[in-house]
Amino acid sequence: MLHDSFFIRNTRIRNRICVPPMVCYHWTDESGVVSDRHVAHYRALARGGAGLIIQEATCVTKEGRLADSQLGIWEDGQIDGLRRIVQAVHAEGCPIFVQIHHAGVVGIAPQALCPDDYTLRRGGVEKRGVKMQEEDIARIQQAFVDAARRACEAGYDGVELHGCHSYLMCQFLNSRVNRRTDRYGAQPERFITEIMDGIRAVVPADFVVGIRLGAFEPTLADGIRHAQALEAHGIDFLDISYGFTDEDEAEKPADFPYKDVIYAAGEIKKQVSVPVFAVNGIRVAEDARGVLARTGVDMVNVGRSSLVNPAWAADALAGRETGRCLDCAVCQWRIDADRCAGRLLLRRTRQG
Fold first, then answer.
1. Helix (H) or strand (E) holding 15
2. pLDDT digits (tens, 9 = 90+) for 59-104
3. Which helix (H) or strand (E) holds 98?
């Protein structure tokens, strides 16, 4: 099953293994421009045999960043650098989508936008979000549309809207954060569907538009409802992860062997017909096969283990030892990849 190809819109996915978006901090600067390191990183992942790569969260406005070293897609001057990543990945026969993102209240802006008045409390620090007015909503929606247009010009096969991990889109979807009384409160998906409409108006018909969607927003029933609403509006795929993690109610049966969010992906898949991705804790090929078989989802995201071994997909498909992320308390890969414990263990294993 891992070997099976399928299509998302008109984009052929060569197998069921996806490298999901993982931000590489400090690889760029305030400019948000792609570096040589980014190009080499994505080239290696594509050469490693994955069926699809989704590029790390790439911000649609400078003030919407989650970090001051985040990749950007907020101005046309960034297109040439982004095109370098696309060309490197396509040269290895792999499609690539870019995840387009706005952090909202959890971002670094001192006056961070939020759908409603909301005080974020994390790590002993309080941060109050600025309630978005209609003109703010329109401006950010246009920023997402412009970002998708730039992605298309750079050659990406599609975009993934970042609608989870506590960022702006899932702030709209979570009723404990978004208590608006206007149409963006009564129909919280509207913020996203209007962006989808704007994107479809400026990209070719075969350009993919999917979303990383929170499963528990705040409950699984809400996540299923959002998924159905977005499918009805023409979303091309649903990449299921956690939503606003301070305001959610995760669930799974006691006998379910994988993460609660993987259970949720399977439950969402039962209610929709578009491709659904599952993520979290999928470290080895046995896990990947098991998740596909148990849940009926279409694709598995293998993130950290692909950092340990960029050829994880090719090794899994060939039945070789893949290596795995060891969940170190402090990720050494992000400091110095050569010090990654999982990578060192895989090297010793292969040397016998």
1. none
2. 999 999 999 999 999 999 999 999 999 999 999 999 999 999 999 9
3. strand 96-101
Q: In what order do the strands lie in the sheet with 118-122?
A: 113-114, 125-131, 118-122
> CA–CA separation, 36 vs 323, rounded Å?
26
φ/ψ of residue 209, rounded to 5: -130, 110
pLDDT tens digits, residue range 250-290? 999 999 999 999 999 999 999 999 999 999 999 999 999 99
Q: How far apart are CA 81 and CA 16, in angstroms?
A: 28
SS3 state of residue 221 = helix
**242 closest CA partner among 13, 17, 52, 20:** 20
End-to-end C-alpha distance for the chain, whole angstroms: 30
What does the alpha-carbon distance between residue 45 and residue 56 come to, in Å, rounded to a whole number?
13
Furthest C-alpha separation in the chain: 64
The verdict on whether 167 is a catalytic residue reads yes
Candidates 6, 276, 34; CA nearest to 155 is 34
Map tokens 């690539």 to a residue. Answer: 96
Catalytic residue among 167, 242, 258, 263: 167
Nearest to 45 by CA among 281, 234, 254, 307: 307
Collapsing DSSP to helix, strand or coil, 70 comes out as coil
